[in-house]
Amino acid sequence: MPDVWKPSVTVAAIIERDGLFLLVEEETSEGIRFNQPAGHLDPHESLEQAVVRETLEETAHDFTPTALVGMYMSRYVSARTGHDVTYLSFSFCGEVGAKYDQPLDAGILRAVWMSYDELVACKDKHRSPSVLQRVIDYLDGKRAPLSLLQTDPSVYEVINNG
Question: Does residue 158 fall inside a structural domain?
């Protein structure tokens, strides 16, 4: 059977407080970049669970998603490795909660609050073009209810194949 093409599913949190957006500064194969708290969907979790987990791991903040801002599809080819990946990313806005005293994920240098103008000024350092587009869509008021997302209970089941 030939290989089946599969996009990498990711999530991202657009977190705004007092006109500032919570971003992470991270080490990547392309150098140090800015991104929203974001990451891959893990087995046995919903999209909402993934964005809560990723936000906690990358910023040490609780996050409660309240709406879906957008779904973004992009293709990335690493200039360094030639690695070709298509990403399908689900971006959420919501409420930021408590901040914990815990280490951040490997590769995350710091969590930083930035204004829209600061974000625009460093767009050459964004992890992807979606970083700014997510904020623009958020500021434009794009919101879809979380009820549009359905996770079948089978997702949470662990199947023993051994």
Answer: no
Q: What is the pLDDT of residue 162?
A: 53
CATH number at residue 126: 3.90.79.10
Domain encompassing residue 16: 8-147
C-alpha distances in Å from residue 160, one per residue of 69, 157: 36, 10
Picking from 111, 126, 120, the residue whose alpha carbon sits closest to that of residue 139 is 120
Instruction: Tell me whether residue 156 is in a domain.
Output: no
Residue 42 has pLDDT above 90, yes or no: yes
Q: What number is the average pLDDT over the span 130-154? A: 97
Q: Write down the pLDDT at residue 144.
A: 98
